[in-house]
Design goal:
By secondary structure, the chain is of the alpha+beta class. It folds into two domains: 4-137, no CATH class; 147-228 and 279-387, DNA integrity scanning protein, DisA, N-terminal domain (YojJ-like (1), CATH 3.40.1700.10. It has helices at 52-58, 89-95, 147-166, 170-173, 179-200, 228-255, 264-294, 348-359; strands at 8-9, 12-13, 16-20, 41-49, 68-73, 79-85, 109-115, 118-123, 126-132, 135-137, 205-209, 218-226, 300-303, 309-316, 325-328, 338-341, 364-368, 374-380, 383-387. Helix 3 (147-166) packs across helix 6 (228-255) and helix 6 runs antiparallel to helix 7 (264-294).
């Protein structure tokens, strides 16, 4: 697959997705309930030997977002493509936070060819390793979910949780103990979705989240106060909590007790909240795309800790270089895993963000390169620390709390 990535087909780069799947037992542990859009594997009439020319020729019959090639070895340990797996869209929607549920993944492991010399290997939802030309990277760092970066984002997250709490009766919010954690995940996953959208533009960009309201050290070329992401996130939480509360009341007080009737008002509440949640999901998607497109203008997108856009095309005018810059080897930036890096090794976008974050405590700089690399930086123990190989998509670390009566197959 690495050598295939160096080829082109009709002048187009090659991308593909491969699943190592046993043809004699492709689905060893199916769920008790098979949903309509679950994956299936379709056999080829004749297996195709897994060679570089063959992969180049058949690559365009598949798309990493939609379908995969099923690969396995024969009795002589020779690899071949023996089938195609469909319905890959649900997985991609799920890991990009565009869907609330996702399927189990087929096969022992999965390999994606995403660019020239760029391979990513997964086991289920967990990234095992990533090869970028000649650099082998381990699992991505979940810096947005824990550690110093999460700590810098926490004031905005807490303000969001407080706003939702104050808008609901206390008994509704406290009916389930997980809402604080769930709301924090909604907030962070929305930031991840924004970065994924910027990444998909393949233009490069930057987002600065700063508690400094003075705009000192910034030249805001296009001022724009856009609050819809914050308000849409609050609406999402309110609708989700109210829908869940109504559903729980129906299940615990009526269905679980085999009641003959369910109050019509309670049923209508659950249905109305579910319908509004669907509309809100569309609103969130459009809002995130709106903000992501602002990053295509030269300069950064400026945001407050509560994710309100303050402007775009923003230039950092601070000129003082940081005394030192460190690269973190783990999400918590432990001292023994820090290594000093050369400030001048990075481009203009990275260096300007380093200058700002080194002087403004609590600020978080997020830089997306044209090749899709995402780096984040903030102050840790009065030192500027940067992280790369950032975890943006869903994996086993994040688990959505299940509704009490939710089917386990989702």
């Amino acid at each position: 697959m690495y050598f295939v990535s160096l080829k082109t087909e009709e002048s187009q780069p090659i991308t593909l997705h491969v699943v190592y799947l046993d043809p004699d037992n492709p689905d060893p542990n199916p769920p008790s309930r098979i949903v309509k859009d679950r994956w299936s594997c379709v056999r080829l009439a004749n297996p195709i030997p897994l060679t570089i020319p063959n992969l180049v020729k058949i690559a365009r019959a598949s798309d990493p977002r939609t379908s995969s090639f099923a690969v396995h070895c024969d009795a002589n340990e020779r690899l071949s493509v023996w089938g195609l797996i469909d319905q890959g869209n649900r997985y991609h929607d799920f890991v990009s936070y565009d869907s609330q549920t996702g399927p189990e993944r087929p096969g022992v492991f999965q390999v994606s060819l995403v660019g020239t010399g760029h391979l990513v290997v997964y086991a289920g939802y967990e990234k095992i390793a990533e090869l970028r030309i000649n650099a082998l990277l381990g699992g991505a760092l979940d810096v947005l979910w824990r550690g110093p970066v999460y700590g810098a984002l926490l004031p905005g997250i807490q303000a969001y949780i407080n706003a939702v709490q104050h808008a609901l009766p206390e008994h509704v919010y406290r009916d389930r103990p997980h809402w604080d954690a769930s709301l924090a995940s909604y907030w962070v996953s929305s930031l991840c979705r924004l970065l994924l959208r910027v990444e998909s533009c393949r233009h490069g960009g930057a987002v600065l989240i700063t508690p400094d309201t003075s705009s000192c050290g910034l030249n805001v070329k296009h001022g724009l106060r856009y609050q819809r992401l914050r308000s849409a996130l609050e609406t999402r939480a309110l609708l989700r909590i109210q829908q869940t509360y109504a559903s729980d009341q129906i299940f615990e007080n009526y269905l679980e007790k085999s009641a003959r009737e369910v109050p019509i008002d309670l049923y209508l509440d659950e249905t109305a909240f579910e319908h509004e949640s669907s509309e809100n999901q569309s609103e969130l998607d459009g809002t995130i795309w709106f903000i992501a497109l602002l990053s295509r203008v030269d300069g950064l997108v400026l945001m407050s800790p509560t994710l309100e856009v303050q402007g775009f095309g923003v230039e950092i005018t601070r000129a003082e270089q940081p005394e030192a810059v460190f690269m973190a080897g783990d999400s918590r930036a432990t001292k023994k895993r820090l290594r000093q890096i050369d400030y001048n090794h990075y481009g203009t976008r990275h260096r300007s963000m380093m200058r700002y974050c080194a002087q403004v405590p609590g600020s978080v700089g997020l830089v997306i390169s044209q090749d899709g690399d995402v780096r984040v930086m903030t102050q840790v123990r009065s030192q500027l620390v940067m992280w790369e190989n950032i975890k943006l998509r869903f994996d086993d670390f994040l688990r959505r709390p299940k509704r009490r009566n939710e089917d386990k197959s989702t």
